[in-house]
């Protein structure tokens, strides 16, 4: 249940090859054995992109790919972090002096976010030192929430090492806030699904208060994730935070136009709630109030009656201070329409009409077009990959995660899956363009989410390409 604490399970390490390998690596690194292991999964968002930080519900599910950390509490104030991937350098620091450098999106900073969040929540003046060895199977910067899973895992590590307990909801909310130490103004979807996910179901994640509702996906189709092999780190660029600020500015201009206290309004959902109107009516208001042309900072200041200094100090984030124009109409239009698509997606899943798969696919396609045209968070490689997936049998395909790279998620009828995988692999991963980038071929993988264990077993029995797939259900 969402209110429960994260589960703690005894495991026989010798029966778990990955844990055994991690334990052996830990001993080789630190000279002693870990005392416990902590795991947090990544996620795929089926629909509801860039709307969680606007206050709207999203519809993600967890994937098997995860962050796994072996931990040994130590009698010192030293934190030692190491990674099984040699590309990520070791890190050590005093656990009483945690410094997070927003200008560098290094892997250990995400661990420090989770650690600091728990420290500050409990006011830990002398937290336990730790040796930690991390093993991750989520492709980095792929839009599958590797960074948030690391923050969540670090929060759990710190909680357990210091003998504290929290509910899953409390943990998700703390980790959402603490990830902002790295500079990313996220909304909470990634942390919520990492903690609240359950096997066999997607989740409708709602906010204020945070809650999760099961969404049973229809039988007869699978969701397939494909990596575009273009990496995008949210904390390393201003793309993501610029969109957050555009939504925040749209909120304030819409609020002021309707006589609301715009200074207290931060999210587009707040405007709808205060006005008491439907999402469709909000789209009409957007068309009436916000013009499609980009707004300059001077025009925004004039509309709100504030100085440029006030705009930068009171509204904009640190890494958007130098942005000179903002597209408010397009961003608000995407958010309100996407929020409506999420609710429609859930409704179709609940009612399960005969053409549910086709209807859900259409919603995914609409979501992708809006992300590409209204939110401008796609990229040429994602556009190409979506087109290929639709060409070879997907009923719906869209980018998932922040965008500007990362992965697509496609809904594919089960009877078309074998040919879909074969053709997509050939068209995207073995094309002349992609062959110039061997990393893309090496990182190619599909992660399929199944609506039932029976379907998974039947699929594995019949699939000759199973080495390229990892199932969740």
From TrEMBL:
Its EC number is 2.7.1.157. One of its GO terms (biological process) is galactose metabolic process. It comes from the Eukaryota. InterPro entries: Galactokinase, Galactokinase_CS, GalKase_N, GHMP_kinase_C_dom, GHMP_kinase_C_sf, GHMP_kinase_N_dom, GHMP_knse_ATP-bd_CS, Mevalonate/galactokinase. Residues 355-429 form the GHMP kinase C-terminal domain. It is an enzyme of class 2 (transferase). Keywords: ATP-binding, Kinase, Nucleotide-binding, Transferase. GO terms for molecular function: ATP binding; galactokinase activity; N-acetylgalactosamine kinase activity. It holds the Pfam family GalKase_gal_bdg. Residues 24-73 form the Galactokinase N-terminal domain. GO terms for cellular component: cytosol. It catalyses: N-acetyl-alpha-D-galactosamine + ATP = N-acetyl-alpha-D-galactosamine 1-phosphate + ADP + H(+). Residues 109-196 form the GHMP kinase N-terminal domain. Signal peptide: none annotated. Monomer. Belongs to the GHMP kinase family. GalK subfamily. This is N-acetylgalactosamine kinase. It comes from Anas platyrhynchos platyrhynchos (Northern mallard). The gene is GALK2.
């Amino acid at each position: 249940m969402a209110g429960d604490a994260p589960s703690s399970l005894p495991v026989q390490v010798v029966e778990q090859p990955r844990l055994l390998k991690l334990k052996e690596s830990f001993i080789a690194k630190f000279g002693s054995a870990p005392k416990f292991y902590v795991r947090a999964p990544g996620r795929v968002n089926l629909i509801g992109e860039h709307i969680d930080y606007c206050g709207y519900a999203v519809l993600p599910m967890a994937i098997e790919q995860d962050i796994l950390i072996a931990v040994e509490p130590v009698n010192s104030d030293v934190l030692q972090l190491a990674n099984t991937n040699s590309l990520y350098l070791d890190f050590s620091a005093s656990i009483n002096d945690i410094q997070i450098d927003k200008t560098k999106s290094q892997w250990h900073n995400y661990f420090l976010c989770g650690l600091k969040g728990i420290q500050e929540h409990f006011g830990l003046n002398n937290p336990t030192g730790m040796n930690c060895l991390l093993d991750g199977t989520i492709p980095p910067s792929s839009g599958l929430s590797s960074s948030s899973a690391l923050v969540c895992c670090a929060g759990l590590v710190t909680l357990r090492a210091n003998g504290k307990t929290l509910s899953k909801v409390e943990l998700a909310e703390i980790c959402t806030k603490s990830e902002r130490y790295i500079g990313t103004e996220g909304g909470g979807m990634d942390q919520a699904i990492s903690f609240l996910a359950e096997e066999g179901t997607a989740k409708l994640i709602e906010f204020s208060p945070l809650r999760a509702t099961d969404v049973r996906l229809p039988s007869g189709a699978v969701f397939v994730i494909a990596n575009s092999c273009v990496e995008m780190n949210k904390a390393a660029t201003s793309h993501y935070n610029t969109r957050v600020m555009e939504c925040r500015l749209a909120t304030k201009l819409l609020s002021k136009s309707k006589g609301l206290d715009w200074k207290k309004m931060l999210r587009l959902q707040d405007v709808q709630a205060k006005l008491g109107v439907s999402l469709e009516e909000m789209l009409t208001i957007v068309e009436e109030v916000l013009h499609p042309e980009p707004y300059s900072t001077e025009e925004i200041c004039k509309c709100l009656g504030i100085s440029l200094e006030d705009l930068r100090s009171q509204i904009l984030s640190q890494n958007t201070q130098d942005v000179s124009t903002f597209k408010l109409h397009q961003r608000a239009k995407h958010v309100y329409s996407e929020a409506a698509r999420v609710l429609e997606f859930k409704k179709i899943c609940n009612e399960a009409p005969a053409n549910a798969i086709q209807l859900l696919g259409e919603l995914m396609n609409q979501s992708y077009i809006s992300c590409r045209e209204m939110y401008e968070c796609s990229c040429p490689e994602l556009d190409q990959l979506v087109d290929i997936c639709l060409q070879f049998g997907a009923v719906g395909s869209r980018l998932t995660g922040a965008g500007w790279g990362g992965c697509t998620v496609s809904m594919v009828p089960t009877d078309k899956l074998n040919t879909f995988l074969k053709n997509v692999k050939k068209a995207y991963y073995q094309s002349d363009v992609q062959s110039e980038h061997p990393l893309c071929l090496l990182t190619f993988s599909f992660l399929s989410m199944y609506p039932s264990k029976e379907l998974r077993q039947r699929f594995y029995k019949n699939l000759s390409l199973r080495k390229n797939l990892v199932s969740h259900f």
